[in-house]
Automatic annotation (TrEMBL):
The protein, known as: Adenine DNA glycosylase
EC number of the protein: 3.2.2.31
Record family assignment: Belongs to the Nth/MutY family.
GO molecular function: 4 iron, 4 sulfur cluster binding; 8-oxo-7,8-dihydroguanine DNA N-glycosylase activity; adenine/guanine mispair binding; metal ion binding; oxidized purine DNA binding; purine-specific mismatch base pair DNA N-glycosylase activity
Amino acid sequence: MNFSNILIRWYLENKRDLPWRKTDNPYLIWLSEIMLQQTRVAQGTPYFLSFTTAFPTVFDLAAANEEQVLKLWQGLGYYSRARNLHKTAQFIATELLGNFPDNYNDLLELKGVGEYTAAAIASFSYNEPVPVVDGNVFRVLSRYFDVETDIASASAKKEFFALAFELMPKDNPAIFNQAIMEFGALQCVPKSPNCGICVFNTSCAALQKKKVDQLPVKLKKLKVRNRYFNYLVVSDENENTVIQKRTAKGIWHNLYEFPLIETQKVEGFEFIAQQIQSDFFVENEMESLSEINSKSIIHKLSHQHLHIKFWKVNLKGNIENGITSKVLKTFPFPIVIHNFIEKETGV
């Protein structure tokens, strides 16, 4: 079909030089696809290179401990991806003897692998004609064909999957999938695309109807929850500090943080001091308490906005399970805490 031919020709002339495009190794493709979920290519590429250096095979990743994996992942966010990645590597190494499933349906059985990732691996590694359907594909196809289906609806993925499958050259699905994703990432971008230089500017329905900025349709609005975190950055007489592991389900599972007081709103000195004296560090007398940042750091997650304040707590004596600042930096932290540690001195 003409659409596919024009798209693939554009791709061959404009594609980025990305490391995972130089291989059909399912391990490397799987790694890149998991990393690029919810992550821009520019941000994900250094992580891909770090992971493939540290863990060149699925056996190497399987043999690592979880904290090593989380430490390397630090800053990419959506940490359940890293935990699932590690568990799936262990499953493939031990149960499948290092061999990835070689078809779409079996790939879907892997932990952390959804329809999009399974389609990418199946087409890029095994040339199986399965279309990838992600935000880029929704955007390109909805604009080109003027599809007004709400992409947040239950039927949308099935509809766009069928349309992409019809357009896909069955003898070379990999290049079509790469091309349509790249076109959405570089040319048919979400806001203010440069339609004047687009190869489809004479045939795109949205452009002809002046609807480019209205498509794709997404009606569902995400509810954002505000949370208020007060981190206690302790320093005892030996300048040791203390951290804890987040073991509860939810954000940052199995990452580390400073002792936390979560409140219903922004709280001041008196409230935090009272909480510390009643609930924290009972073996040590508090010498002083001070705000490190008087204005909350707003850390935005997809469904939560965290309002974060760090408090310096000086204690008398030596704190139990205290660690030095050098040891502190070896643990995996959420990026907002990692950045704080890097910036602050004398922690």
